[in-house]
Amino acid sequence: xxxxxxxxxxxxxxxxxxxxxxxxxxxxxxxxxxxxxxxxxxxxxxxxxxxxxxxxxxxxxxxxxxxxxxxxxxxxxxxxxxxxxxxxxxxxxxxxxxxxxxxxxxxxxxxxxxxxxxxxxxxxxxxxxxxxxxxxxxxxxxxxxxxxxxxxxxxxxxxxxxxxxxxxxxxxxxxxxxxxxxxxxxxxxxxxxxxxxxxxxxxxxxxxxxxxxxxxxxxxxxxxxxxxxxxxxxxxxxxxxxxxxxxxxxxxxxxxxxxxxxxxxxxxx
Length: 269
What we know:
Elements: H1 2-14, H2 20-39, H3 50-57, E1 61-62, E2 68-69, H4 74-93, H5 109-121, H6 126-131, E3 137-138, E4 143-146, E5 155-158, H7 161-177, H8 192-210, H9 221-236, H10 239-246, H11 251-258
Antiparallel strand pairs: 1-2, 3-4, 4-5
């Protein structure tokens, strides 16, 4: 896990968004936290609690001369908090955990990223994701309902256990911090076009942070739709089921998304 997050920090340093010295500091603190958690019998990120992170931030340490410091300075506590906040934010964005042990994490942007990805992976298109609201969710039944749009029909999708956790985290965050907001991942004041563009921008952040998108390779929400189409085809063997799940009226479009050359003379994708 630390290896993957370290890659994101190094990329931020390469982009000029983070000093390489801070990357080194974050890696050192994260390694120490891993040892500290292991000593407490905590071996999974999902099991990390606020009590554990608070204990770590107040734990004894050593200075640059290797002398033991029983009570860390305020600056040391801030560095530890900052490193752990970044570690868990990136880990959530990468789908490695749903844990939010630092409740004061500024804005918790990763809840939006996780919710956005959960909706796309459940079969919603970018325009539908942009308009999704908490009332569209039934987390008890693990489903999400969309009204569709000019290109798709209304339908209800099943949610994976991970999607349920991610969307519950998002709805809890909105209820506590933005109780008046209706949409799950876009601003209520955005036009439909702008909201859809915001979904694309958010997905680009996810793709960049995860290493899927590079300067030589572009990834877009449509790629997630293609993935979902292929998964449905693999599970059911029916193009009609792909069309139903994605709300498409055209079997040709469904076959195209699933990468199936189903007409005579078609080229396999």
